[in-house]
Amino acid sequence: MKQIVVAGIDAGSSAIKLSLYDGMKMENVSCPSGWNPKEQAASLLAAALAKQAVSTPAYLVGTGYGRSNLPFVTKAMTEITCHARGAAYLLPEAKTVIDIGGQDAKAIRIDGNGKVQDFVMNDKCAAGTGRFLQVMANALGLDVAEIGYIEAGAGSQECTINSMCTVFAESEVIGLVNRGVAREDIIAALYTSIANRVAAMAAAVQPVPPVAFTGGVAQNQALRRKLAARLGLEISTHDQAIFAGSIGAALYAWDAL
Ligand code: ADP
Q1: How far, CA to CA in Å, does 74 sit from each of 15, 70, 200?
Q2: Which of 44, 60, 185, 219 is spaced 20 to 30 Å from 173 by Cα?
């Protein structure tokens, strides 16, 4: 029997995520968006299809920031719709999704089938996004993954990050470093700043538990715990949470057959 494979591609600001789905198995791969996301996405797709000995997907849904720049997709869908569906696939109990990606953050309230009931999105400002975390990690001599391995301190009233603007917040971090404040305390202050920002945004959808945390930043477990404490709600994540958008796109592609 000929194998039928569909694909979902999430062309994000920092990474291209691809999910191949055959009705049973979901295969997820990613690569950096780079300076030519269209070519990056095409090569990622070609390599993943070759591995499965498939020449072309039966249907391809594109989503994410760069979806309109992907000429080979069958259909483009909004990232809110796809993230909601993908989050419900990974964490089927979820009623609310909080996604923090490279340059946006979103909160989505969903029904039991991963359909969107309400959503809010910040894509105007880097505060509370992966970009913000990345800049602050760099100011501390770390990369965005390394900062997640450092135990955050308890935090203190003397060590806070008050600026919403990424550039000013970076200056605050550099100022704290130069005052000799412990890196752990600066990290705690950073997480508080991001959690406050994201929680204030999420309030607009009246989040209900269980909450699913998706997007690249969901890999930072200390930030997840801080956000849960700030919202007063339990938040779970999944090791494939960065693929929520492409998984949702692949599921919509499967529906379209
Ligand atoms: P986009 O769709 O905008 O490309 P993603 O959901 O793919 O965003 O997330 C990418 C962001 O995730 C990057 O900007 C980076 O800051 C962040 N990120 C990547 N790896 C990690 C990690 N290990 N811990 C925390 N954040 C991370």
Answers
A1: 21, 10, 37
A2: 219
